[in-house]
Amino acid sequence: MMNITKTKRNFIGLLTLFSLLCGGVGAVVLHKALPGHYFSGYPFIPVFFYLFGLFGIYMFDACRRHAPQKMLLMYMAMKVLKMIFSLFLLMIYCWVVREEARAFLLTFIAFYLLYLIYETWFFFSFEMNRKRKSKNENRNETIA
Q1: Smallest Cα–Cα separation from 53: which of 13, 109, 6, 2?
Q2: Who contacts 91 (Cβ-Cβ below 8 Å, separation ≥6)?
Q3: Most buried pick, 4, 22, 127, 140, via CB within 10 A?
């Protein structure tokens, strides 16, 4: 049986919901509000960010278990890695599918920002909860 922490389970659940919601809303916007702007590569964008989010949470979980003092470094490394992979994907897509390049770039940037906000919120909340629990544990030890 696979061992999954509560934080990892919460992140994966929320990431799945967020990806489905953003992917669906984005498709509706491109089909209805901006007719003619939907492009064939659109589904790859939410899938890219979803898979990168899964990779990220597994990396964070491994870091939390084996080197918790390096969590901030891991967070920053994941952001840099995501940016490098994103730029690489953007360059390849725009080179291969030139006629859809502008729509792909604008949509990709919108998703990049949305996922950046979501991930920052999630990990900020995680860190605040961790600090609050640590403070409560220290207070309980002092009382006992």
Answers
A1: 13
A2: none
A3: 22
Picking from 112, 109, 115, 93, the residue whose alpha carbon sits closest to that of residue 39 is 93
For residue 65, what pLDDT is reported?
Answer: 87
For residues 57 and 112, give the distance between their C-alpha atoms in angstroms, rounded to a whole number: 17
Mean pLDDT value across the chain: 89
Which sequence spans correspond to the domains of the chain?
Answer: 8-139
Residues 6 or more apart in contact with residue 7 via CB below 8 angstroms: 61, 126
Backbone φ and ψ for 76, nearest 5 degrees, come out as -65, -40
CB atoms inside a 10 Å sphere around CB 78: 20
Low-confidence ranges of the chain (pLDDT < 50): 1
